[in-house]
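Per reviewer request, we include the raw input and output of the structure prediction for the construct analysed in the revised manuscript.
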Amino acid sequence: MELHGSRIKLRPICNDDYPRIVSWGKNEEVEYFSGGSYPTTLDECRAWMATALSSRNRVRFGIALGSRLIGDIELDHIAWRRGDAELRVRIGEKDLWDLGYGTDAVVTLLDYAFGVMNLNCVYLKVYADNHRAIRCYHKAGFKKEGKLALSRLNQREIYLMRVLKKEFLRRQFRLAANS
């Protein structure tokens, strides 16, 4: 399945994508801002994808610009009865940072989460010093809900943000009406 945004598409991650994904996991700057446990070897990448494919509580896509994989995005910890999930996104190609591709990917996945998956809330955790990501999330409709304790790994402050289905749909309606 592919999901099309205004500039990007979300598509399944395939074996040919693994070397690129591994390269992002090894890049210190990408890793600093993404802060996840992303694969750094091909074997880890295979296991990372196998875990995602075998779980009904996770949806993962590659973010593509044309045929070029530029990042990945997922909904994790999907609680079907409660109707919420945690969002994670990473633009791994640093030459494409600050160009709006992350925002397009987030909005595209939110549209799917609220419209097709019928979720009610999507939340995320972001490092307080990741201003680029916070700007992206605000543009997509997320609001800061609070602060979590400092990360045990690196002593960085973490914000919790969320967007509700009704807020997102209302915002998308206003944006469409103004264009």
